[in-house]
Amino acid sequence: MGNLKITLVKSTIGESPYQKKVVKALGLTKLNKSVELPDTPQTRGAVNKVSHLLKVEEL
Fold it and tell me: What is the model's pTM?
């Protein structure tokens, strides 16, 4: 399994509290901040919940 580079490209203002918690759980706190996470089913599921806020690249 590889890694995913996940970048927050849209603000969570106006999103549901659940979606804000998912973004925070991914380790994203500010716009244009990126994190590298392992490509697991759990990570993919969280990314799919808030995919409209993120940019995802496979490493």
Answer: 0.87
Domain residues of the chain, as ranges?
1-34
Angle between helices 17-25 and 41-49 (to 10 degrees): 140
Q: Which residues contact 24 (CB under 8 A, 6 or more apart)?
A: none
Rounded Cα distance between 38 and 8, Å, is 17
State which H helix or E strand residue 8 sits in.
Answer: strand 3-8
Each residue's pLDDT, cut to its tens digit, for the chain (59 residues) gives 689 999 999 999 999 999 999 999 999 999 999 999 999 999 999 999 999 999 999 98
The SS3 call for residue 24 is helix
